[in-house]
């Protein structure tokens, strides 16, 4: 009896078709399918021992002939005649090649030829009963003789693969360690040269073009280690120029064009090496606060006012006296070059195009001078105080001299939060540009994250509210305090003369289980009593989130990760699109809620969980 039938492409093990009804009455069907996939994987690595294989597994046996570009495999009872099994596969092969032969190389998704199941079922029926006249005559027919069947046990066959896998894992570890060097090379000229099967392959990333012409083929299994462990499909076009070199253009079939900023996250995931995607996306420890930052917005509802004149809507607002086109700014985030070789320059240009403010992180990968020179966006400079106060003072001075309009002092990071993904990945980071020549930021540790080591080595954990007097003494720039989550700290910020407060938990990257920012915004706003503007960051992903934050008293919001995702996916244009999407969504939210300008967004436009509880008591 034929129990399973599976068809896969040999170059990469991609399943093309299978008998859909197969395995329904089989205990452990899933386990056997996994074994088949492992066999396909072996074959894709060129491990095949004979022209016909019989691989025994429990009461069954996998039969498959030496594959060409496609492997046809069936699993039958051990008692089922091998001769019939191979004849069955031969019938499948003839029909499959006839119908689908031209598209086998270019198939991009698993089970692209699932319709072939109809033929599998029909043919399987013919072979099910070995005693039919047709099958008896096939068994007796010398024409269908099968020779050289090698019988092995599944453990033996997969065991060989396992050892080879170990070797391949070791080599992919080496590959991932060498990725940092590959990235540097990519920074230089976006080209990587690799040697594969003694041939030199030149990889030229060509962005996100999903167009594939004829002659393209996929070498998925070979290329991903170089470009990260993205699950994106790689399409490779080969050419043989006069030099005899193979040039392969690597492209990715990307997810659909994003329709909201969350879509950019998926694009970023496909684009970035895992280590860097994890760095951008991750939070501290259990990532409770990280998740809650977004979730807490979902628990707030909007109370719209209807039949209001919405023929024109003005989203502009003022921040420290600067007019911006919408109440959304770019939060300080470090190391933009890990997302895109243009780094903070691309981000700043997008901010400038969208007429909003960018807060440049002290841990940027372009210098504050380079960013200042690249565009005329209004810029603030984010500061963490270094142990070396003289260097901190120099940086503040440089920011002032280069036209930065405010200092954003991050108060929530006396030590580095425990970001376990970075620890697991043993993240490798570049030296920091702003302190080049002033402070060594080259850290290489074997024990976990290099970021922890760097922060602990350089930052001053003893800096307190009292020291803000010192900071004020070295700059005329207004100082915003970032990281406030309680009314007590809000009052302290007022006492020390802060020009503004940013309610922030560092995007859930510092203290886990501290509250989501939107849940404490109102407490801070009440404590401040309108004396200075209050801003918020953390989990803002929608125009409705911005609206909710403003209704609860924020002057504007800042966004961190969405900007990085946009930058990773599409560079400057990606950041611009992220900002535009948020703006468009906010405009729509205002239109549907009856607010024609940001001042008209009031507390009465939202209900929090607390409001609902109070209402239920009435
Ligand atoms: C990758 C990354 C790097 C960050 N680097 C900094 C930094 O250098 N200084 C800082 O004050 N905050 C930093 N933050 C925190 C952001 O300023 C901001 O508080 C947070 O990203 C807001 O949350 P969101 O990402 O959900 O929008 C960083 C956040 C991320 C995701």
Got a strand count?
23
Strand content: 15-25%
Q: What is the arithmetic mean of pLDDT?
A: 84
Number of helices: 20
The fourth-level CATH homologous superfamily of the largest domain is Aldolase class I
- Name the shape in a single word: elongated
Bound molecules: flavin mononucleotide
CATH architectural arrangement of the largest domain: Alpha-Beta Barrel
Largest sheet: 8 strands, parallel
Low-confidence stretches: 187-241, 245-253
Tell me roughly what share of residues is in helical segments.
Answer: 40-55%
**Can you list the strand order of the major beta sheet?**
15-22-21-20-19-18-17-16
List the helices and strands and how they pair.
Layout (H helix, E strand, L loop, with lengths): L1 E8 L5 E4 L10 H16 L7 E6 L2 E6 L4 E8 L4 H19 L16 H12 L4 H8 L8 E5 H36 L2 E5 L2 E7 L10 E2 L6 H4 L5 E7 L6 E8 L7 H11 L2 H8 L6 H11 L2 E2 L14 E3 L2 E3 L3 E3 L13 H10 L4 E3 L7 H7 L4 E5 L5 H13 L5 E4 L9 H6 L24 H9 L9 H7 L4 E6 L2 H9 L4 E4 L13 H12 L5 E4 L5 H9 L4 E4 L1 H33 L12 E2 L1 H9 L1
Parallel strand pairs: 3-6, 8-11, 15-22, 16-17, 17-18, 18-19, 19-20, 20-21, 21-22
Antiparallel strand pairs: 1-2, 1-5, 3-4, 4-5, 7-8, 9-10, 10-11, 12-23, 13-14
Helix pairs in contact: 1-5, 2-3, 7-19, 10-19, 16-17, 18-19
Bound molecules: flavin mononucleotide.
The site of flavin mononucleotide has 23 residues, from helix 19.
């Amino acid at each position: 009896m034929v129990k399973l039938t599976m068809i896969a492409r040999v170059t990469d093990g991609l399943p093309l078709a299978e008998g859909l009804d197969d395995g329904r009455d089989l205990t452990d069907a899933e386990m056997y399918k996994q074994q088949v996939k492992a066999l396909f994987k072996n074959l894709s690595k060129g491990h095949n021992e004979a022209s016909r294989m019989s691989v025994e597994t429990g009461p069954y046996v996998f039969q498959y002939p030496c594959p060409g570009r496609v492997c046809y495999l069936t699993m039958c009872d051990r008692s089922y005649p091998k001769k019939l099994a191979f004849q069955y596969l031969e019938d499948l092969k003839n029909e499959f090649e006839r119908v689908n032969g031209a598209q086998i190389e270019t198939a991009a998704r698993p089970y692209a030829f699932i319709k072939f199941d109809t033929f599998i079922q029909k043919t399987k029926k013919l072979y099910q009963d070995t005693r039919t006249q047709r099958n008896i005559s096939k068994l007796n027919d010398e024409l269908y003789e099968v020779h050289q069947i090698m019988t092995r046990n599944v453990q033996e066959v997969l065991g060989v693969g396992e050892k080879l896998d170990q070797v391949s894992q070791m080599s992919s570890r080496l590959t991932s360690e060498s990725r940092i060097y590959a990235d540097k090379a990519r920074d230089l000229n976006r080209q990587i040269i690799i040697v594969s099967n003694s041939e030199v392959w030149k990889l030229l990333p060509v962005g996100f073009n999903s167009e594939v012409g004829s002659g393209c083929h996929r070498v998925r299994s070979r290329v991903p280690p170089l470009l990260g462990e993205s699950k994106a499909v790689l399409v490779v076009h080969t050419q043989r120029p006069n030099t005899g070199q193979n040039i392969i253009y690597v492209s990715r079939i990307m997810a659909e064009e994003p329709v909201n900023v969350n879509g950019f996250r998926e694009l970023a995931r496909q684009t970035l090496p895992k280590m860097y995607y994890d760095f951008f996306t991750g939070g501290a420890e259990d990532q409770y606060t990280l998740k809650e930052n977004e979730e807490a917005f979902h628990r707030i509802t909007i109370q719209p006012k209807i039949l209001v004149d919405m023929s024109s809507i003005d989203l502009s607002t003022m921040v420290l006296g600067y007019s911006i086109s919408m109440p959304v700014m770019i939060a300080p985030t470090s190391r933009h070059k890990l997302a895109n070789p243009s780094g903070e320059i691309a981000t700043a240009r997008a901010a400038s195009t969208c007429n909003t403010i960018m807060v440049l992180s002290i841990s940027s990968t372009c210098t504050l001078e380079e960013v200042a020179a690249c565009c005329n966006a209004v810029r603030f400079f984010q500061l963490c105080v270094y142990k070396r106060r003289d260097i901190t003072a120099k940086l503040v001075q440089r920011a002032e001299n280069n036209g930065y309009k405010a200092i954003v002092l991050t108060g929530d990071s006396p030590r580095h939060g425990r970001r376990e993904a970075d620890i697991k990945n043993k993240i490798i980071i570049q030296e920091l540009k702003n302190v080049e020549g002033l402070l060594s930021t080259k850290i290489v540790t074997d024990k976990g994250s290099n970021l922890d080591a760097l922060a602990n080595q350089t930052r001053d954990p003893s800096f307190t509210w009292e020291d803000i007097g010192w900071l004020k003494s070295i700059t005329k720039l207004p100082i915003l305090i970032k990281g406030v989550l309680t009314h007590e700290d809000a009052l302290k910020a007022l006492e020390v003369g802060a020009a503004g407060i940013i309610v922030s938990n560092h995007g859930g990257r510092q203290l886990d289980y501290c509250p989501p920012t939107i849940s404490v915004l109102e407490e801070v706003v009440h404590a401040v009593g309108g004396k200075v503007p209050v801003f918020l960051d953390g989990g803002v992903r929608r125009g409705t989130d911005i609206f909710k934050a403003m209704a609860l008293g924020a002057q504007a919001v800042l966004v961190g990760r969405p900007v990085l995702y946009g930058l990773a996916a599409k560079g400057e244009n990606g950041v611009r699109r992220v900002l535009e999407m948020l703006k468009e969504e906010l405009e729509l939210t205002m239109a549907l809620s009856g607010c024609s300008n940001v001042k008209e967004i009031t507390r009465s436009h939202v209900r929090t969980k607390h409001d609902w509880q109070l209402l239920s008591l009435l």
